[in-house]
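Predict the assembly for these two chains.
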Amino acid sequence: MPELTYREAVRDALSRALREDETVFLMGEDIAEMGGSMAVTQGLLDEFGPKRIRNTPISEMAIVGSGIGAAIQGMRPVVEIMYEDFLTLSMEQLVNQAAKHRTMSGGQVKVPLTIRTQGGAGWSPGAQHAQQLESWFVHVPGLKVVFASTPEDVRGLLWSAIYDDNPVVFFEHRTLYPLKGEVPDELEPIPLGKARVHREGTDVTVVATGRLVHDALTAAEQAEKDGISVEVVDPRTLLPLDEETIVASVKKTNRCVTAHEAVVRGGFGAELAAVIQHAAFDWLDAPIERVGSKFAPLPFAPVMEQYVIPQVEDVLAAIRRTVARA
Amino acid sequence: MTTVEEKAGSGGGRVSKEGLRGFFREMLLIRRFEEKVEERFRAGELPGFLHVAIGQEAVASGVCAALEREDVIASTHRAHGHSIAKGTPIERIMAELYGKVEGCSHGYGGSMHLYDVEVGNLGANAVVAGGIPGIVGAALAFQMRGEQRVAVAFFGDGATNAGTFHESMNLAQLWKVPAIFVLENNGWAESTPAKQHLPLPVDELGKRALAYGMKLIEADGQDVEAVYLAALAAREHALSGSGPVLLHLRTYRLVGHYVGDPQVYRDKEEIKKTKATKDPIELLRARLELDEDELASLDAEVMAEVEASVEFAKAGTDPKPEDALANVYAPARKMDRGGLHA
């Protein structure tokens, strides 16, 4: 099996879709000659030309909005919002337009639009270049939400997002772009709404997203030394959510920790905790622990940034709290 | 960069008398439809709330007559006229206002979300300026596929202060997509007059096109022939590859912002004077020299259609409550590895 970085895996999915299907095209800021601020779209302009790899003005409303219009007219646009912080500028188009056209029209239109974006802390970007806002979008009927954590997943999920007939907000994590991983020779589409069990265990389930999947796996290895067997599950798609896999895991382990980089309050972990306690109330042996950032805009100085965002140790401490209850 | 301002004027009789009579009938139909909607709303038969475009019929009729069926429009919260003029049968619009399955949005949309994709109506939008960026994208799709179609956004003067308007104008001109931005300038942003929301005279709002190097075409929005000819010119320009057009039509809202609006913010004399001098249907009637008999017979014909639409709507099917969840997502496609054509 070939090895790709997470960045290359995203690019591979885009290239293959662009090659296969002329309705697919890309729009975004600095994605053409520069190859995107994260270098994800490097080389695509040369292969596919400026009509399909379109640099845009700094106009997030128009980027998402024109993507919506083109999608309704039968194209499969993939738009890039450079940082997920900037998604806030396009919220009206995403929430009122993309998400609602299908219902408002009584099923007459579909909006096969993919909105790629990225974020994530750990490199002192300050408060406006690293937020993790995925939970906002899980609250909006009509959208689908993906957050991939490995090269294999990001490639297979992006392909499925592009070919889904609904608007998909597709989150990538900045610190994962250099991460290497094996991918199948042929692109295997990964269906939206299917979780991945990264590691089996019997004592506690950690449901983690994005960077925290990797922190959870590290924490699980450390916990194992203390004789704690940790299962790590990545939902991969936050909306729709694979409740079945997650609930089954917790019914097996009887304990659960949720982990994401976004702030804890109102984060996706709250939704997970609600789903799990309702479906597996009688199986739980401890309160569900939530790991995430402390409730503050991200400060600049590295020591403060590291203090705010969750680390491996925070996941490990949460794991220990849940097993201590039994 | 050159930008040409064009005043289409009254068109110098380029539309035949028969053509003008056709416009008159359609405008009268829109007017009677909206008056009926007001009446049924006040009678408590229609849920939600409503905005009518009484006084702005020439804009809807004139612009849509210049479009082909495969051209698409995005409308606003004041959508009945645009929808009728683009070709949706009035009984389907009325059924929508009654929340029936037979409605043009099958009961999911209501007055502010009238859709009819078959005739190119991509939907009315209840967020001011919210539909404009989508029209840029629709036009982009036509351009990329080499289709001779235009995409048309209707919006009012109030919308020209929204960021979506400016971002859309900029992007559309940059990429020279075949779009027409129809500025339906009635001088009011809800209850706020132009002098409180525009830093330039209301009649000069079309100048905003110049900032983007965009072609500006202007016409009297109360003169349906002028509107039609201006829209034809706009369509031709948009399809020429030279870029989009801002079609600035000065018009007048003869009624309140919403049905039931007491218009406390508006001078009573001004309303009276505007009604007496700016009613596009009266202006066209005078020009056509329709006598009382002709008018009465046409009116009776139109009213019969409107009444029939109410009967159709009332006899329509109520959606099942659980249908509410039927259209949140488009169904899954069959997905094969490597090739994904369902």
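Chain A touches chain B through 53 residues (CB under 8 Å). The first strand of chain A starts at residue 3 and ends at 5.
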